[in-house]
Write a structure and sequence with these properties.
Length: 129
């Protein structure tokens, strides 16, 4: 994994700290704080799994192999998050917490952006190095 995963770990810490530090504001907009923390952990763990696929992609000698591995990781992450959201919506049907869903969606996009940014940077270094 190495130092390249460090920005994702820092992102996890920042999101967790932000949730704790803005607890009063989040409660004011009726956001589920425990749900946001669980969502942060879930998206972090799925990013870790997706990162594994991206690392495998860097070992591929062809561009097609790299692209297939990257897409596999992103699709896996997307499907796991969609399934988790659908399970939450089904279980909490009468009282679905919209701030939780939108907060999770925001975290998902930021984690994805960070992960793709890291992979593009690593791929550029590997191709130039």
């Amino acid at each position: 994994m190495g130092k390249s995963f460090l920005p994702v770990i820092l992102l996890f810490i920042v999101f967790s700290a932000a949730i704790f530090l803005s607890k009063n504001w989040l409660q004011g907009i009726n956001a589920d704080i425990t749900g946001l923390l669980i969502a942060n952990i879930l998206v972090f763990l799925v990013t870790l799994l997706s990162y594994y696929f991206h690392n495998q992609a860097l070992t591929k000698s062809t561009a097609t192999g790299f692209v297939n591995s990257v897409y596999s990781g992103l699709m896996l992450k997307m499907f796991i998050c969609i399934i988790a959201a659908l399970i939450y919506i089904y279980v909490a049907r009468p009282a679905v917490n919209k701030p939780l869903l939108f907060g999770t969606l925001g975290m998902y996009f930021i984690y994805n952006f960070t992960e793709v940014w890291i992979m593009m940077k690593r791929n550029k270094v590997q191709n130039n190095g």
